[in-house]
């Protein structure tokens, strides 16, 4: 996002002949200061991928970030998959592009949905997300808050099989188990298995079932009135495109005299970056170029705040129970992406006041016992 701000690159020298320079303060350079500090520090992003084996998760991630995160991976045979349980595997890579550094962490979930009985197969995944929230809460409550490492999961790409007529029960249960903890972006995997009409019908069906079952997937923020028309058009296309029908490929083929990433079939070539073939480009633009920061903001301001409020509630309730207090603190309402910042601040202030009142009562009771 570019800002139409004009500033001088040096501190002006005061002269009698320059009225404009006398009136120059210098806060117009703040955007550049923030930019320099952010670029120097670098950025981090944690992406989780979930879905059955064979849905092209690894290939898509490599295609998105133009890197090979799975070169040391060992593929299990059919016999080894029988007793396989859901694992959590992290892959971290440092990527640099035009001087901007990104620490990318991919959280893979091999074994999910592969068993005959998939009852609560999402439990290790929800536990992992909660563990990252808990670690961040501990670090944030500690003394050294300057170098806190953010390992919270900012986004979960959930791969839906292209076979079938919509969401399966395991898809519904998985997304409902995670939708209060992480930003879920549903994807239709291996879209080259379907015709354009089949993709459209499947998308409509999935959107209907998401509404029917009350699943909260990631909601794109509304565009501000001062946004440029190009961004507004991009935002509109992204909203109409979900769930994204994607194809991944790490091989380069020749099409129309050009070398492109795609898949070669007897009937023709499927190009990964051809928007008439799949939604890969739209997904990449959304995930990396336009909404990565918003995904991090929603994680911090909504999902983590919900977890933090719940932890504080449990701690204060336990404290009240231990001291046999009869006035438990009311449960704080969960945040939603549409809650205004002022309302959130007010709610936190009220929470602190209630905690202070509890401490005062406890001190008074202890003082009376001593007497």
From TrEMBL:
**InterPro entries per record:** G_SEPTIN_dom, P-loop_NTPase, Septin
At which residues is there a site annotated Important for dimerization?
Answer: 163
The Gene Ontology CC terms held by the record are: cytoplasm
Instruction: Give one GO biological process term.
Output: cell division
Keywords (alphabetical) are: Cell cycle, Cell division, Cytoplasm, GTP-binding, Nucleotide-binding
Q: What top-level branch of life does the organism fall under?
A: Eukaryota
Gene Ontology MF annotations = GTP binding
Pinpoint the Septin-type G domain residues. Answer: 41-314
Family note: Belongs to the TRAFAC class TrmE-Era-EngA-EngB-Septin-like GTPase superfamily. Septin GTPase family.
What this protein is called in its record is Septin
Lineage runs: Eukaryota, Metazoa, Chordata, Craniata, Vertebrata
Coding gene? SEPTIN5
């Amino acid at each position: 996002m570019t800002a139409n701000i004009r500033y001088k690159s040096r501190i002006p020298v005061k002269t009698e002949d320059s009225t404009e320079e006398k009136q120059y303060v210098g806060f117009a350079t703040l955007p550049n200061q923030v930019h320099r500090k952010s670029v120097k520090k670098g950025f981090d992003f944690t992406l989780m991928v979930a879905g059955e084996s064979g849905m092209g998760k690894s290939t898509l991630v490599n295609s998105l970030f133009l890197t090979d995160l799975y070169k040391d991976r060992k593929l299990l045979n059919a016999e080894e998959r029988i007793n396989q349980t859901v694992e959590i595997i992290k892959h971290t890579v440092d990527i640099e592009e035009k001087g901007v550094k990104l620490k990318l962490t991919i959280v893979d979930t091999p074994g999910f949905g592969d068993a005959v009985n998939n009852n609560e197969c999402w439990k290790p995944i929800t536990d992992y997300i909660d563990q990252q929230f808990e670690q961040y809460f501990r670090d944030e409550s500690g003394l050294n808050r300057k170098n806190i490492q953010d390992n919270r999961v900012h986004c979960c790409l959930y791969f839906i099989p292209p076979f079938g007529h919509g969401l399966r029960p395991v898809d519904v249960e998985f997304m409902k188990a995670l939708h209060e903890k992480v930003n879920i972006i549903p994807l239709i995997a291996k879209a080259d298995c379907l015709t354009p009409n089949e993709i459209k019908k499947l998308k409509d069906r999935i959107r209907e079932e998401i509404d029917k079952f009350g699943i909260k997937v990631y909601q794109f923020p509304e565009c501000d009135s001062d946004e440029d028309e190009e961004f507004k058009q991009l935002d509109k296309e992204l909203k109409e495109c979900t769930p994204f029908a994607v194809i991944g490929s790490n091989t380069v083929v020749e099409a129309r005299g050009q070398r492109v990433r795609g898949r070669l079939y007897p009937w023709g070539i499927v190009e990964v970056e051809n928007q008439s073939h799949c939604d890969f480009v739209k997904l990449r633009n959304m995930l990396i170029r336009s909404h990565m920061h918003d995904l991090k903001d929603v994680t911090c301001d909504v999902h983590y705040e919900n977890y933090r409020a719940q932890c504080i509630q449990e701690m204060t309730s336990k404290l009240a129970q231990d001291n046999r207090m009869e006035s438990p603190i009311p449960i704080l309402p969960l945040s939603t992406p549409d809650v205004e910042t002022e309302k959130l601040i007010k709610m936190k202030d009220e929470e602190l006041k209630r905690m202070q009142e509890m401490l005062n009562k406890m001190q008074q009771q202890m003082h009376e016992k001593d007497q």
